[in-house]
Batch of 4 targets.
Target 1
Amino acid sequence: MSNPRDELPPLFWESGLEVKPVYTAQDVEASGGGEAIGLPGAYPFTRGIHPSMYRQRPWTMRQYSGFGTAAETHQRFLWLIKHGQTGLNVAFDLPTQCGLDSDDEMAEGEVGRVGMSVDTLADMDEAFADIDLNEITVSLTINGSALAIMAMYFAMARARGFSWDNLRGTAQNDILKEFVGRGTWIFPVEPSIRLIGDTIEFCAHHAPKYNPVSICGYHIRESGANPAQEMAYGLAIAKAYIDHALSRGLDIDAFARGLTFNFDIYGNLWEQVAKFRAGRRLWARILREAYQAKDPGSMMLRMIAGGGGGGLTIQQPENNIVRGAYYALASALSGTQTMALCSYDEAYTIPSEHAARLSLRTMQILMLETGLCDTVDPLAGSYFLETQTNLMEKRIVEIMEELEAQGGMVRCVAEGVVQAAVNRQAYENEKRLQSGQMKKVGVNCFVEEEEERRVEFHPYREDEARKQIERLTRIRHERNSAEVRSTLDRVRAAAAAGENLMPPVIEAVEAYASVGEICSVLKEVFGTYREPIRF
């Protein structure tokens, strides 16, 4: 008699891995065995980077927040902290991300629209006033202009009496994924990596507990990459930064623990969990075997993982509340250190307070009511999950080896190879969505022709943009112009001489040089990036 399972049509995840109807111990052995499952907190960290994980310390809860002026964002920060948020994930507006001042003609209509507008140190001071930086860790979602923003954050912290030796926090500062996914680049690829190297080197010597880079597979996934590509490209980017830092003479164990990761979660729950367990294990092996790291902390893949906006829908937006809860579940089952859950209205607008509170309560319910913190890696030993974790690791390695065969991650980004691969995957995903092969509730199934969409839109207030420009004008009038010119000259000279730029940029921001002025000086030395087009 034939087995009914043999007649079922094949099923594949986005990453191309086939999913069988039933798994046994034989599948685990055939895929590579279970020897690498190990124990949580022990190499290769498949089950998590800490022995007790959430039983001892639950995940940090962050939400991406920031809009308008520093004063407006400050009020949102205080509101989030009051309602139980334990970390801040700061959004910056596009002019700030692109190294433009608010009064630049290219910034018109964008000042404060999708994040907080920051021109000078005064904005940083106001945004974080009365917030204890020892209690609330801050993640700065900034890349192209990260050097200037990080300098402002360090200057602000020092002025308020916080020691750099103990300062904790994270800057995204991942420019390679910007070339692939978001586009807020400023300088060409090589000098952009040099700037990241400056921040890694500076933190290794002066701020050892601060994370200067958060490698962001998240935005690569949001741009269309499948989960295996997201992890592979993220790890390849991290390797590129390590190689650059090592070329400066830094010891791997002096800086590797400062490289953190930001990954995306949407789609098939099991695929997400397998992706993270495989990536965590592979990263540990890379650090120990390829880079001869000795410190176990260097081998730990520390990550922020939350619900991805790419999984949200404009149609039937309240369905996104349910999606977000499942994304949070996947994040917890994956062993994240920080959870940054999207709000249900983010397919439309900057989250309202109502939507932000729902996301925060979702994470709190998951933490306190569902038992997710009771035991470490509750899915370990599953025939299904361990098989797919093994196969996912092999797929990630295949993608990374393909990159190496084409010259490595830096070259593949500079020549547009990775961008083309992500674009092709995005196209394939859209075809699957439109054909109905990939189901999306409310989009291509269970569609309501005349649905009511109850979403509160965040207003863009031009008067706040004018206030920001007026503030910048006033600061330029009140600051010591000769001191600003002198500090900018030192930035220019250090850039041309190949010196670490963090010290002179910190001096410049302390003199109230603006983000746009600092980036303009660097453009004089480095030039600007021109995107290659590949088909």
Target 2
Amino acid sequence: MNLELLALLIPVPPLVAFFAILLFTRQSKRASDIVAVTAILLTWVIALIVFFSAIGMGPELGKHPIEASFVWLPFGGSSATSLTMGALIDPLGAVLLFFVPLTASMIFIYSTGYMASGHYWTEVKGEGDTHGHAGHGETHGHEDAHEVVVDTAGRRLTKTDATAWKAHFMAFLGLFAGGMLLLSVADNLLLLFIGWELMGLCSYLLIGFWHNRIYPNQPDRITPIGAGIKAFMTTRVGDMFMLAGIVWLYSATGTLSFRAILYNEATLEMLGEPWALIPALSVAGAISILIFLGTVGKSAQFPLHTWLPDAMEGPTPVSAMIHAATMVSAGVYLVLRFYPLISVGFEEHGFPLQMQIIAGVGAFTALFAATIALAQRDIKKVLAYSTISQLGYMVAAVGIGGYIAGAFHLMTHAIFKALLFMGSGSVIHAVEHGEEHAHHHGHHFPVDFDAQDMFNMGGLWKRIPVTAWTFLIGGLALAGFPFITAGFWSKDEILLDAYLHAPVVFWMLAAAAFLTAFYTMRQIGLAFAGEPRTSAAEEATQKDWRMNLPLVVLAFFAITAGFVGVHKDFPVLGTLFGGNPFKNFVGATLLEKPETPEFTWIVVIASILVSLGGLFVGWLVYVRKPLKAGQEDPLKRALGALYTLFENKYYFDEAYNFLFVRPSQWLAAQIYQVIDRGIIDGILHAIAFGTQWTAFRAKDFDTHVVNGGGDNLARGVGDLGDSFKYVQSGRIQQYLTVAIVGVLLLAGIFVWSLFLS
């Protein structure tokens, strides 16, 4: 079996599906679904073949990875200076091949059900049997109920239009997955950056997918197209610095190959020299910080975190893709891949400056985002801030030397966060269907009724039991419920590294873990516990197997995936599950396999206490006494002004709007007036005036000289003809007289000439 060829083929099916859907199947929802799902399942099969082959190679894969490359851009007359493209599957890459195709496949299957019920249009009153929610949100009318619907901008959409929207969605989803898979198998920074930017484009296309949606009754709410632009522009800030780091790295080493840079001791030693501008920072450290800023943007770390919660304006499958299978996972993968560069000087001199910066940003982001999640009402935005917080854990792990723990949590988090986002989409789907059914039974809702607001839910455990149970499993994994969830084992490994190497980071992450458990139980309690707080929740329903099957599959892995990383010294379980096979395998990615952190019960007990403590407090507040309809959030009474601060996200959006957005818009307006209208338009208008003047002068020359000469000649000939026409009188006697006179004149001239001679 040619594993090298299979590795190269992994990103191909979803990329081919993107073009196939747009070119051939865009007029058929069913065909588009089949093409997209078939492509991602084919990729999953190929990835599993490569993954299990890689597992079979064991730690030796770190020394002899599966790799294949070809010359892409030869220059300089030497193959040594040519840019190459290819695939690299080492232990870290193999981990990505496990969870990226898995979560992406589940999201694709889920999307065929989620997007099948009218999500791609917003129905309004007066069209068919709909119940009127202009600008409302994800309404779910039956697409066969009428031939024409009206979108939120007032445009009329036919069923053909809606079919094309669905096809475009599946095509963009395929491109998104293809970009992440391309990044996952890339063997060099250039190819990685191509996949990286491809995902940036897809984030804009998919977050702003409902580009026609507006919120006339909520003027302060960002629109999907606004959220897409915000995501694109914010991540570009980090990408600019990342690109500068790539250029610097290439200028210093002459290559972009991972193996040539990260696994070459001489190169790393050369990059470890102090940087002339900041002696406390090595060249490797300075480049690492620039590359890390790409992660800050892509993985929504402070201070470039503001785009990720607004990305929830996109369809829920997009949220799952961004938060689990692609985008944010790519940012963490980047710092994991470049850990050998980031950690230059770590063993000899302790934590270098770049690692301190990375650890500080990650730990602060983890705690900062967890506090914001406490006060959010939108079920998806709670998960969005949770993602920012969990990514902070992974980033902090890299900063404190916890390479294995960071990679482990990247894998488990992708699984249970995909589960939670798709579970939240199932909840929204059910509430909106309940809203529609309740309307038909005579209940009326405000135009701005929000089916994503957890305070409009309640009592859903009985209405959607599959979603409820799987969401509970995902929530417990997120909260780190002890021993039986993947989140406990991966989060515990990060806390262990922090406890042993960075106590301040440990306490920050422990506090964040407590808050995570609390807001997770708050979310479960508000959505599923007690009695329905609205008639929409009372009649909520969701029975689509295409949405339920992925939830069940991911719930299974949210429990079992963590056992591969149980610490080898953990009593009974460490031996039972193979003595931490994850660490033994992934650790081989590095030149030197990291030492296993010393096991201590202090960290285990701390993990259990913060997890169960947060869950218990959340249970006391939101489950033991479920909220009634119209009841105020008990946390608001307890926190007072802090709740308002958390609810408004520390006013970072307002601050950025004041400090950056408005000045940029003002500057753009001035540039428009001075440069565009004054200089550019002035030059263009002058050119246009000169061209016009020249054209009119050419017209005058043509009229008076070219045409005038010809016209005057013709006119002269005509006038001469008019003058001679009177000679033609028609009288023979007159003609004879003229002839005789002429002959006499000629004879006289002849005689006169003879006389003169």
Target 3
Amino acid sequence: ILTSTRVYIDRMLNEVTDMKIMLLDTETTGILSMVYTQTQVLQRQVYLVEHMKNTSQHGRMMHLKAIVFVRPTLANVEMLKKELADPHFSQYHLYFSNVIPPDYLSQLAKADIHEVVGSVQEFYADFYAVNVDTFTLNLPSSLALSLPRDMWGGGQERNFDRAADGVIGLLLAQKVKPQIRYAAGSDLAKAFARKVQQSVLSESALFTFRSGAAGAPPPLLLVLDRKDDPITPLLTQWTYQAMVHEMIGINDNRVDMSRAPGIRKDLKEVVLSPSDDTFYTKHMYANFGDLGVAIKELLTRYQHEFKDNQNLSSIDDMQSFIERYPEFRAMSTNVSKHVAVVGELSRLVDQHKMMDVSQLEQELACNEDHAAQFKALQEMLADGTLATVDALRLVMLYALHYETKSGNQLGTLKGLLADRNCDQVGLIDTILRYAGQAQRGGDLYGNKTFMGSIAKLATNLKGVENVYTQHVPYFADTIEQAVKGRLKDSTHPCVSGVATTKPARDVIVFVIGGITYEEAACVARMNKANAGKCNVVLGGTFIHNSKSFLTELSRLKDIQQGYAGSEFGR
């Protein structure tokens, strides 16, 4: 995923020679930043990187050519028309991040009265490349797509269409024409799968890729719904990338460290990118314990290098140091960054008692023991030092697990939250309306069938080596079945055609409602275990941590309440 986007950017920068300026929109700015740093772009004879709407602020610079990389939207076309009618640069090379409608091209051609457009191309980088096998569309509020269509406002319609565009861009970038299947229990997944299929058919001239060896199964696009697994976004994470997002937050590879006590000015915002940080790439899926060991080794290696470089007793020593200085300086910055991030994670783990919280979370998510879990939950809620948001997450996990259990104590737990002045107790009912047992299509807790109960019992009896990482994302089994060609038509039907029963070599999983970094780590482990046999790509409308998931649930509650209070809702 990272490579496909980077190749497009490289081609833009190589095709337009001499000094140039890059003009972007808000989304393509983020898309570019995921694979290229601003410094790297400026090193490619790019004089300036600017938003499309700001071109008039610099006056005319006719000695520069403009690389325009934008989404093919009406708003961008209107801005381009104004720019072409009154150009600020000598030449414009237009690169659209997805399929551009012929009508838009016609409008741009009419606006180009000065004949300054040098080329127009479609480069399908219409998604945010996160990891080598993970992408997002950065669409918050996508949980609201789960509402009945007659409750959608303009925002939901735009998100639905934008999500479909992003998946089409991904398919074109990866050069695949897939068979499309979806979670049968989700009307949203079905509607989305059909939308993508219609787009593939309407752009059939673009989807003429070779299908591989004769008899090979087609690539698979599997559309899933977040509501089938509301547990994963609520859990504390213990691998590096996932921990940083859960406890601090990652936004387009940037991490805001400004709240860390005593943080150096140059470390108040750091970048964690798998495309240009070898330590991060190697350890992003490492658990917290192994990460600490790796950080220590990195620090030891740096100190060894530093001592070597202090012995500058000759001109040759100095020259050698100067030659190695960029590498040395980069290593120094990298060490400082990762030591600071891991130090802040450690502080937050202690401050929020995450070891205790996570252990109970895992019990609620993975094991069936109502009496013991309810008692432990009561004791934890009585601890005044427990963060209210962590208390809320624990009660949500209890509500999801024991929603239909006779004699559950959800009312008591809500009362304890209210006693803690938690103003979001209503979100518990919201998550049950969104993803309660009646709404979920699958067997989230593995106990609806006799064989599921036996499998769960066997897991419990075997014991788990690490009590903090018992949980496996619900979709892991679904992906395993897809890779083996064992998905059932009853649970994951095809949009059209007959489902293949052959093992799939290429599987693209798209989750409406968002994904998590725990799921990204799960997919990375699958790809590593099945290297050479299959390749799984994971994408979603958003990348959640528990905070963003609760925020979306709050928006969902507001929409539902607004609809119920409206004349149409009544």
Target 4
Amino acid sequence: MIFRYKRSFVMSFRKTRRDVLQSLGVAGGVLTLGPHAVTASPAEDRWVCDTDADDMSASDLQNSEHIEITEDLHDEIGYCIVECTEEHLPADCDVDFSEEKFEEYYGEADFDKENLDTLREKAENDESLPYVPDVDLKLSGPEVAHESGLNASNTVEDDLYDLQWDKKGQRIGHVHDTSTGDGARVGIIDSGVLGANPNRSVTHPDLPNVREDLSENFGTGGPIPGPVDGVDHGTHVAGIAAAAENGTGVVGVAPDAEVVDLRVFPGASTSNIAAAIVHGATPEDEGGAGCDAVNLSLGLGPLPVCSFIGLLILIFYYPLYEAAGQYALDNDCLPVTSAGNSSTNHADPTAGGFCAPPLDFEIFGESGFFSLPASVDEFLTVSATGPIGYGWSDGGNGNGKGKNKSKEVGDTGFEIEQPIQTEQKPEEPAFFTDYGGDDEVNVSAAGGNADLDLQETDTNWFYDLVFNTTFEFVPAEDEEDEDEFAPSYGWKAGTSMAAPQVTGLAALLAAQDPDASADEIRDAIEATTSEPPVGKSGSTTAPSTYPDILGRAEGTNLATDGESDGDQPSNPGSNPETESVDTYRGSGHVDMKKAVKSFGDED
């Protein structure tokens, strides 16, 4: 299918639920913070209220002595987040929000449950819910990552650019001849960015551009931004988008852009993610961060429509994310999000048979999974690509291309073969990426790949992940002491790493034309994508079967081939030619040089 997304400049502020559900169709996703697994659970006595619903206006909430409004977003996106017991909410909902209901996913027994039938009737009658429980997201460790052990304070004289296949593949030096992002600003809605905490002296030498004064914390772990524990995901994402080009360490896509830390983890919920989007997009002179783009390497899903929790979140939270995304666009801030890492085909109308028997809701037309915010049109959704065999060591575990000379990278102990040869190209769809064509995935970008067979070998398998800024965390032994953060570098793979490549590109374009709208920047990114060949004879190593999500998969996505030659990575779709690569790229693979050149030519 050939389709290029175009957004109308005249659109309603909020679509009806029927419009939302009909336009959404079947979607797939992953409940992730990039490569991190996440679970969802209802928050106790915290509610997201639709202030357009009957008896749920902002004044109704403000006038109650039993209700505390923790986030007042009714002027911006039509929602308020409140704390109280459910009995004190002014509107009736007719839905049982008992915690155990959130643990019921799907199966034949779910189809006649009272709650599901109630939600189905409301959806078919185009009725809204006045409120739902706020949903907490819980973060766990990364699936694919590797730490370098480098101390940035001691290795800042080292040139680590050779480890950055993602930037070399985009010829980022030539891109920076046209734009470096100077004057642009990006918001990182994530787990915190090292250098954003004004109470700590520690910063990362490659992130001197963090705006402490504009950064905010929307999660738990204290009132201040910056990381609060050992999760360096946000620092890695920030470096991919905007690590400084200062002759030391690594480089980002937009090295002269400013970075704003909008921390939502730990304690992330759908409401504070929406609040972070609003704050990031609100102009600085109106009390916001004034970002040109915000990056969300996170998500909620996959959730089956044929379940209480899935249908509940679909009919309430999709419009919330839609309103937040549209608010960002109205303020010329482009929201960019990761597609997800569940190897799920968003465009499959049957979702691989997950829902059996499939629901036949008249308003849906088809059944399946959805993901938020990846499935929301207002967000630019990015899938991941990556090489197999980048800089692998020569010898029995090498890439089979013959002997190559090696070049030592600075004084790090890491070596890169010269010339670099790979079995699969950097534009290869990654084994974990979600996909589904340009109605669900808009573009692809470098997010890393891996041959999982080789993780226990001495091959440099981790060179195929994305290398950028991290830190080493040393917790304080005593309560009165501060935790220690040692700036470092490391590898991570996920659609989390792909999204900030595009967020950085948005900053490059915003710097070229400060008057450009977010829609114009998005159109330029999608219009200048490319379709480079991948794999062997046009085949792809990307997934062709579903992972074991919620125990109902028809196949798994982590099959291994038992070989270590890079010929067949740990991806089930690597041997037969299954899907067209267009399915994994949406409009195409981002081309940064072409985008900045094209944008400049239009001025």
